[in-house]
Amino acid sequence: MTLPADIMVIMAHPDDAEFGIAGTIACWTGSGKQVVYVVCTSGEKGTTDIKMKAEKLAQIREKEQVNAAQVLGVRKVVFLRYPDQGLEDAPEFRKQIVRQIRAYRPHTVVTSDPYRRYVWHRDHRIVGQVVLDAAYPFARDHLAYPDLLEEGFQPHKVRELLFWAAESTNCKYDVTKTFEKKIAALRCHKSQIAEMKKPELEQWLRERCREMAQGENYELAEAFYRVELPE
């Protein structure tokens, strides 16, 4: 039997959550909240190394993600293993997300914003849209995917959605005290840090978090667009 979690973080690729929300996750787990990751692809196309095989990179990135989750105190990492750069807004994918939501019954679901314009990875847009639809109304309605009832996955009402990398935000978390843990988790993704070629990664992220904290009485923040779901 699956134990419920307070928060479910659903991402397209390994490392997405560490860039977008790791400081906030560390705040949550530090206060005793149970967090579960759902990783939709294994990021097996995320390389410029022409000698790297997709199967090997998938193994590397999954291991990196597990290590990062352990740094943050995340309870479990679920890998769905859909093809990288191949996610589609399709009934079967939506059903899989509904299955995860009904299995862990989170109060809060967090994912990438589907409505960011211009330069934004297509997998991120697709995941955001599919998660939005899965959380409301599909996970809530017993006649949506009725075969899930036969598998024992009862309907569940998610109470709120948080979207990271949104162009407009209405919710912030103070990550001043957890920023170093965010960096430590991100550094577990060695394969991707090498691809980024950003020697001043910590400085770059600190400045981003400082910008998100503007107007607040703390130094660093992660900002989201929050949606409270109807009954």
Folded structure, characterized:
This protein is α/β, with parallel strands linked by helices and 231 residues long. The protein is 42% helix and 18% strand. The chain has a single domain (7-228), classed as Rossmann fold (3-Layer(aba) Sandwich). It has helices at 16-30, 54-72, 91-104, 122-138, 147-150, 179-186, 190-196, 201-212; strands at 7-11, 35-41, 76-82, 108-112, 160-164, 171-174, 221-228. Strands 3-2-1-4-5-7-6 form a seven-stranded mixed β-sheet, sandwiched between helices. α3 (91-104) crosses α4 (122-138). It is globular. The two termini are 26 Å apart. The model has no long low-confidence stretch (mean pLDDT 95).
Summary of the model, kept short:
This protein has 231 residues and is α/β, with parallel strands linked by helices. 42% of the residues lie in helices and 18% in strands. α2 runs antiparallel to α6 and α3 (91-104) packs across α4 (122-138).
* Termini separation: 26 Å
CATH topology: Rossmann fold
What's the CATH superfamily, by name? Answer: LmbE-like
SSE pattern, N- to C-terminal? EHEHEHEHHEEHHHE
CATH class descriptor: Alpha Beta
> Structural class from helices and strands?
alpha/beta
State which percent range the strand residues make up: 15-25%
CATH architecture level-2 label: 3-Layer(aba) Sandwich
The largest beta-sheet arranges its strands as: 3-2-1-4-5-7-6
The number of strands is 7
